[in-house]
Each structure stands twice: as structure tokens, then as C-alpha cells.
Amino acid sequence: MILDKIDSLKSKYADYRLNKINKLEMRLNKVPGAVSASSNSPEKKMPDKLKITLKTLPKQLSIAKNMEKTIKSLDENPENPKMHMDSKFKDEFENYAISLGINKIGYVDVPSDLIFQDRSILFKKAIVLTMEMDENAVNMAPSPQTQEDGIVTYDELGKKTNFLAQYLRENGFSSHPSHPAGGLVVYTKLAKEAGLGNIGRHGLLITPELGPRQRISALFISAENLPDTSSEAHLWISEFCASCGKCIKKCPGQAIVEKNTPQGLKTKIITDLCHGCTICMKECSFNQVGYHKIENNFHS
Ligand code: SF4
Ligand code: SF4
To answer: Residues of the chain whose pLDDT is less than 70?
Structure first.
């Protein structure tokens, strides 16, 4: 009886997360001046089932609440927002973000082909944020601890992204937060565009500070004079990956597949085969060996 009730609660929650938030996001398409997806934008794939355990349920509920808040809090944006951010406030914002546990901050104009099909964002300028996943938990993959840490980091970064949106509003800017667990843009590519790192063959962002061990979120903002932190410093990673392939060999679901494209051999994650074990993150050479050691060897 109790188990039936728990199952029913979990299934109601999964429906809520997968459908209600989807509908809330669609509302943004009607906002005047919103930036829409392009004709070649990717489709947003929502998982058809969520792994929910009693232990992770509170965090999953918090994720749902904070995903909802990303849209509902838009009503709190100022009527006449600031369009210019001075360097003093930018420093204050970055210091506040770091004090909340944000690891890295990048700035970039969002290319419309990185906005998911049928979605819109309120501003073209993006602040891209990353947060570390616990090293011990990742290195225990596959394990319940790894899965829990993945959910905890989604929740923490989602909450902090909403805090930062509120902080920007209190200081006169309009801000549109995008939750890390199912946002409006392709985060890995946006983070690459913002110069934070490059994308490995496992489809994860690789950064000098954390290798593949981070979650990503974004804040779209009314300020139009933010810098562009894009950089070519991490492009060599693709060349290293081409000679590595460890994540492909270690993936137990054979979910990382290679395909020939006009731009050369590319990898693609088959989401139906991926069961989120995090082994690809753990086994990645940038996690096992470290970014700077690989970079030094690569360039020597
Ligand atoms: S999470 Fe696991 S199943 Fe999915 S791509 Fe990575 S190693 Fe493969
Ligand atoms: S395991 Fe190797 S091929 Fe895969 S992403 Fe990491 S470095 Fe690249």
C-alpha cells in the first residue's frame, strides 16, 4: 500500500517535470522581442522516464521547483532594465557568483542555432556558469553516490542560477535564468562558444580547471556591453580526443557512436542507450590524467 503510494507520487512528479515545465517554457515564444531558435536548431529531448529514488526525491522536487522559478520569476524583471554593466559591478557579480560555489564564468552572444527548437530566450547576451561535480563521487561511478551527486549538483547550480538572476534584478538588470537540468540552449556548445573549454567525444564539456566534471547553466541578461570571452585556446582537445577514444571503449551501453559527417568523424550519444552511469566522465583522460599534464605532453 505504502509502496504503491510512493510509486504514484514518483510517477506524478515525473509527469510534472516532463510536461508542465515544457509548457511553461513554450510560453516564452509569445514574449515580444524574445530570441527564437533558428531553422537548424536541435530538438530538445526530454527524458521519457526519470530515475527517482526515495533518497533523491527531495532534490528532484527542489529541481522541479527551481525549474519552474526560472520562468515564473521573469515577472520580477524591472520595467526599464539597465542595458549597460560597468566593470565595478561586473567584478562584484563575479565575486558573488564565486562565493556561491560557481567555478567558471563566461560571456557570449547566444547563436540562435543553439536555442532548442520551439524555444525562445529573452536576451541574446548570456552569462555561462559552471559548477564542480564532486571528484570522489565521480570516481565511484557507476554507483548510487555518483548518481546522487549528479542530482545534487544539478539542484545546487539551479538554485544558485536563480539567486544570481535575482541579484541582477535587484541591481537593475533584467535576467532570464536557464536551469542546468533541462534548459533552453545546448549548454555544452554554449560553454565552448564562451571559451570555457571544448567538447569531448563523450559529449561533455572539458575545462582546464575540472576536466569533464561540471554542470552548466546560463543567465540571459539585458546588459548589452558584456565582454565576449570566446577563445580558441581549447581547440587542440578535439585533436587529442581523436587519438584517445577511451570513453567510447569504456561505455557499457555502447551509447557513444561515431559517424561520418562532411566535417569529418564525429561522435553522437544515443540517448536511448545511455543510462547515465557517468563512467565516461570518470574514465575520461582529462579526469584521470588532468588537463594541464595532457596539454603539456600534447604540445611538447
Ligand atoms: S553515461 Fe554511461 S552509458 Fe551514458 S554515454 Fe556515458 S558511459 Fe555511456
Ligand atoms: S576519454 Fe578520451 S576521447 Fe573521450 S572525451 Fe576524454 S579525452 Fe576525449
So the answer is: 1-3, 6-7, 10, 13-14, 17, 46-52
Domain assignment present for 132: yes
Q: Please indicate, yes or no, whether residues 66 and 208 belong to a single structural domain of this protein.
A: yes
Based on the domain organization, do 104 and 174 belong to the same domain? yes
Share the mean pLDDT of the chain: 92
Closest CA to ligand 1's atom 4? 274
- Give pLDDT, residue 215: 98
> Which residue from 199, 274, 278, 287 has its CB within 8 A of the most atoms of ligand 1, so it is best to mutate?
274
> What residues does ligand 2 touch, defined as CB less than 6 Å away?
200-202, 240-241, 244-247, 284-286
**SS3 letters for the chain?**
CHHHHHHHHHHHHHHHHHHHHHHHHHHHHHCCCCEECCCCCCCCCCCCCCCCCCCCHHHHHHHHHHHHHHHHHHHHCCCCCCCCCCHHHHHHHHHHHHHCCCCEEEEEECCHHHECCCCEECCCEEEEEEEECCHHHHHCCCCHHHHHHHHHHHHHHHHHHHHHHHHHHHCCCCEEEECCCCCCECHHHHHHHCCCCEECCCCCEEECCCECCEEEEEEEECCCCCCCCCCCCCCHHHHHHHHHCHHHHHCCCCCEEEEEECCEEEEEECCCCCCCCCHHHHHCHHHHCCHHHHHHHHHC
190 within ligand 1 shell (Cβ under 6 A): no
| Same-domain pairing of 292 and 150 | no
Quick one: pLDDT at residue 51?
A: 66
> Which of the ligands is closest to the CA of residue 284?
2
What domain range is 248 assigned to? 237-299
pLDDT for the residue 22? 86
In a shared domain, residues 213 and 68: yes
Q: Which pLDDT value is given to residue 258?
A: 87
Distance 136 CA to ligand 2 centre (A): 19
Q: Do 258 and 136 share a structural domain?
A: no
